[in-house]
Write a structure and sequence with these properties.
Helix content: 40-55%
Domain Vps16 N-terminal: 109-197
Radius of gyration: 28 Å
GO molecular function, one term: actin binding
Order of helices and strands: EEEEEEEHHHHHHHHHHHHHH
Structural class: alpha+beta
Distance between the termini: 69 Å
Domain Vps16 C-terminal: 287-343
Family: Belongs to the VPS16 family.
Number of helices: 14
Keywords: Coiled coil
Length: 343
């Protein structure tokens, strides 16, 4: 907690025009908290029913007070979100298919620098340079030369990568990442890890934001929750295929990723009373330990692969991998035990 006392000065007053007292007030960032760019508040009233927004934006020492019109949503309440350095405000309906309007401060300084009107920030210039390059215009060279003369090209690439994480539209994300990739071509020693990690994170976020999945996490929420918590949420929703694809895409360790998800899936299958014992047993039997063993061998853990193959009931899956691992005697023993002359 910040030990300094809260400010007692009254900055402004505003008449909301709502006769009934507000039912709820939710803060969205505070100007006296380091890292919070704006001080904002939202009010929920009953006349008219739904959300009535009041926003106070701190700009330097001045204040701009304005009302925020939102679609009235009956039987709802406000809840805080965490989209960036501050928090956001979202209307949460009690039930039904009502929308969830949300307003938030611009979450990242990089986004403010790039998308501010007439911005001359290095990230904004790099974005314009990339757009002009796609048009085959000579202005691309002019923008790029201006950035390089100031020796701000690494900063420009970093701004574009950071801003991409806080955008929700895939087209805007792609535009910023293309600009970052364009700028990296003119740098000799720019570390690629941040760019690659952002591409991976955005691909996961866009997958779970799909309307069929319905988990619209922000980049900050995703980082604070961690990938393990996100996988747990997918498992609880029984979205096992998506969870497994995310594990394979991020190359998570087997015990933390695919194996754990398959264990949850198997536990769910045995609880399905509408399925016969034979159907459940056949479904669980499709789990291929040989695939996991192959992955372990590819990671350089040959002994672990051999131990995993002991759980594989099909000799036809054991023998080829043992031969690939150059364990001929062990493969011959498994073939003889199977009684299959072809093996």
């Amino acid at each position: 907690p910040d030990p300094s006392p809260l400010p007692q000065e009254k900055f402004c007053e505003f008449n909301t025009g709502i006769r009934s007292p507000p039912k709820q007030m939710v803060c969205c960032g505070c100007p006296w908290i380091p890292g919070s760019a704006q001080g904002q508040a939202g009010l929920r009233g009953l006349d008219p029913p739904g959300i009535s927004g009041v926003v106070m934006d701190g700009v330097g020492v001045g204040w701009d007070l304005r009302s925020l019109p939102t679609q009235p949503i009956p039987r709802s309440w406000c809840c805080r979100e965490l989209p960036g350095p501050g928090s956001g405000i979202r209307s949460q309906p009690w039930a039904g298919a009502a929308p969830h309007p949300c307003f938030v401060p611009v979450p990242a300084e990089a986004s403010q620098e790039i998308f501010r009107i007439a911005s001359m920030a290095p990230g904004a210039l790099l974005l314009e340079a990339q757009k002009e390059y796609e048009k085959e215009s000579q202005k691309a060279d002019e923008y790029l030369r201006e950035i390089r003369e100031q020796q701000l090209l690494p900063e420009a690439v970093g701004q574009c990568i950071e801003a991409a994480g806080y955008e929700h539209e895939p087209d805007t994300q792609s535009s910023l990442l293309r600009a970052a990739s364009f700028g990296k071509c003119f740098l000799d020693k720019f570390p690629p890890e941040g760019f690659v990690r952002m591409c991976q994170d955005l691909r996961v976020l866009n997958a779970i934001r799909d309307y069929q999945i319905g988990i619209p996490l922000t980049f900050t929420q995703y980082k604070q929750l961690t990938i393990e918590v996100l996988l747990d949420r997918l498992v609880l929703r029984r979205l096992y295929p998506l969870a497994i694809r995310i594990c394979e895409f991020l190359r998570l360790p087997e015990m933390q990723g695919v194996s754990r998800i398959l264990a949850h899936w198997a536990c769910y299958k045995v609880q399905q009373k509408d399925k016969s014992d034979e159907e459940v047993a056949q479904a669980i039997n499709r789990i291929s330990y040989s695939d996991i063993a192959t992955r372990a061998y590819d990671c350089g853990r040959a002994e672990l692969a051999i131990k995993l193959l002991e759980y594989e009931p099909r000799s036809g899956e054991q023998v080829p991998l043992l031969l690939k691992m150059k364990r001929s005697k062990l493969a011959l023993g498994k073939a003889i035990e199977s009684g299959d002359t072809d093996l």
